[in-house]
Design brief:
Distance between the termini: 39 Å
Helix content: 10-25%
Strand order of the largest sheet: 3-2-1-4-5
Number of strands: 5
Order of helices and strands: EEEHHEEH
Mean pLDDT: 90
Structural class: alpha+beta
Radius of gyration: 16 Å
Number of domains: 1
Length: 135
């Protein structure tokens, strides 16, 4: 019988929809089902775990731009930047969290990132949060 060390990890936590500070705890590069490069993000948001994916397609370019700007990682307009999992890890931004039904079981509800926020107030809040993180 396997042994585990009990750490009181708690169960699944569902956040109320709203705006939160998100910390990218993990980022992993991969390939989408359609063969496009992607980065899967595991976010820590107010004590809960929320997942998001950046898929590198022409139609999703706006979302990657928004992620970079929200996290303070955007280069000057028109410049090229190589987006890697390594640069995404430990990024901090303000996000709008919503809820969506599960893909495999629509009866289950999960949190989702509805938007990476880039308005002036959100950028200021995210900048302050980055300053407060001890790393």
């Amino acid at each position: 019988m396997p042994k585990v060390q009990f750490q009181d990890r708690g169960g699944f936590q569902l956040l109320e929809p709203g705006d939160y500070i998100a910390f990218v705890a993990e980022a992993r590069e991969g390939t989408s089902q359609n063969g496009n490069p992607k980065i899967d993000l595991k976010l820590e948001v107010n004590g809960a775990t929320v997942y998001d994916t950046l898929t590198f397609t022409e139609n999703a370019g706006w979302r990657i731009d928004t992620f970079l700007k929200a996290c303070g990682l955007a280069p000057e307009k028109g410049q090229f930047v190589e987006v890697t999992a390594e640069m995404c890890e430990r990024a901090v931004a303000r996000v709008r969290i919503g809820r969506r039904p599960g893909r495999k079981d629509p009866g289950k509800v999960f949190n989702s990132v509805e938007a990476w926020l880039t308005d002036k107030e959100s950028l200021a809040v995210a900048d302050k949060a980055r300053d407060d993180i001890p790393f």
